[in-house]
Amino acid sequence: MKSFHRLLASALLAATSLCAQPAPKQVDRAPGTATLIPLSENWRMDGDVPVHALLLSLQGLANRDLPRIYLEYPKNWQWEIVHPLIGFLEQRHGMKFDRLALNDADAALTLFAKHAKGCVVWDKTVRSSLIVAFTIAGVEDLVIVSEDQLALAAKHGLKTVVDLRGQFTGQPDHVIYQWAYDQYHARCSRDYYVVMGGHSGAEMQPGIADFGISRRAFFSDLSANPKHVEELALLKRILAGQNPASIVLGWHSYAKDTEAQHTTLTGNYGLKMEGLHNLPNVSFTSQIPLTPDFKYTNNHHVALDAKLKAEPKVYLAAVATDSMGIGTWTKPGRGDIPYAWQVLVNWSWMNPPALQYFYESKSPNDYFIGGLSGPGYMYPQSVPADKFPALMRDMRALLARLDLNVLEIMEHTEGHRRNGIANLSREVGDRYYAEFPDVHGFINGYSAAQTFDLRDHRPLLSYDYYLAVDCTVADAVADLDELIRLNDRRPYFLLIHVRESNTVEKVKHIIERLSAPVEVVPLDIFLKLAADRQTYRTRYQEPVKPEAAKPVKNPGDV
Hints:
Blueprint: H1 2-16, E1 33-38, H2 49-62, E2 69-72, H3 82-93, E3 96-99, H4 105-112, E4 119-121, H5 127-140, E5 143-145, H6 150-155, E6 160-163, H7 173-184, E7 192-198, H8 209-214, E8 218-220, H9 229-240, E9 247-253, H10 259-268, E10 272-274, H11 282-285, E11 314-320, E12 339-344, H12 347-350, H13 352-361, E13 366-371, E14 373-374, E15 376-377, H14 388-402, E16 406-409, H15 414-418, H16 426-435, E17 441-444, E18 453-455, E19 458-462, E20 465-467, H17 473-486, E21 492-498, H18 504-512, E22 519-520, H19 523-532
Parallel strand pairs: 1-2, 1-3, 4-5, 4-6, 7-8, 7-9, 9-10, 11-12, 11-21, 11-22, 12-13, 16-17, 17-19, 20-21
Antiparallel strand pairs: 14-15, 18-19
Helix pairs in contact: 1-14, 2-4, 2-5, 5-7, 17-18
């Protein structure tokens, strides 16, 4: 009866949640054919960005009602699953791709110019004008061209509707985006906003632009840095105008603000962040349904209500985060040892075929967990208390849909990051324990942290070690040997965060070289063992104490 009630609750949550932003409508089944357009490796503004921007805008318009165009990004693209996903769509979804030549805008326009009402011309001397053009393309149904491509557009019957050349010469970004806001924001989506940041200056990698255009999102790379007063004021106005618990797509500008500043700000407004500016083909993949015979099934090793007995030994669990698609899923070693992988839960509607690919290609040693902190990337201490329950209601539904029983939390709200602390307050811990009664437990941190708890057989454990990309095997062995020596009470639960570019093979080599014996276990078993023996001290972030009053110098003091 208890399991029936849980299934019923999950079904009700799935029916009532996920309403903050309307997911793109899926087709009944993947189309038999689609067009594949390879893109070059040149992402410089003075290189191939103009032709890539044209193709991205055309993709967003052509894919608005049906998945027609898939862009084949270069093999060195950060999201490495672009190429394996093509084969998966062919083999598992029965698709066939008609391949065009590299960067072939002429052939693409021959096929798909009918989906555009004209073109918007961006100013090659003003980088931000291209970001404004992304907004205009979605609102006005226009293909983006530079002045060098006007003849090509005319060849395909596309006349200039908006010309940005000379519009922004010598203007700062806050003035440029204020103009775009005044002209177009009223007609933009309140469910999606795109921060087209990441790479800056001479390079731009706007992989998410096709989806933003298809959703008629407003684009900018406005700064969340308090020193950029005018930009921050406009950004706050945009975020405040979005629908509750809606999506912020893209990534902060590397040249303007920090990850912590931007993520903290989006959390202040209770918004969800999907933080990858170069995530490709979402206008395509968001419309592809799961195959009828597929169901999300995790590699569970222990029941939710099970109780295990911990022995006096060192237990080790490794967790890879930052999304499987930009990690080492296809690299050597996967499957050799128990390993946990963070799932970006919104991909259940943004990228269903990609998640199906991961779930179906997992080995028995691959275990999936939900992150990061909620339905999207967020810092829980930055989210107002009254906005937290609605977000976590969505998260519970997504965990149930994806068969996930562990939640990963990351807390780098700006004030805490400056102090080098990634801990949770007790208040935030209370919220998570209240919102998620049906999980094995929680893990916290990115770098090592010191938040630990155990309630109702559900531990909250922080990472004890962060394996950086540039950390050598020898250095990691020395670090872990020292940790094991210092934490001499047994059992010792050693939780490792593996930065995404480290292969499983590297982690395996590190573990094999440790001086003391350790037992590598799946994360759900790890948490159940930690629930049996609390050899860690319950601890939360201490409240920040006001600085002690400094003594006032007497006038006569020297």
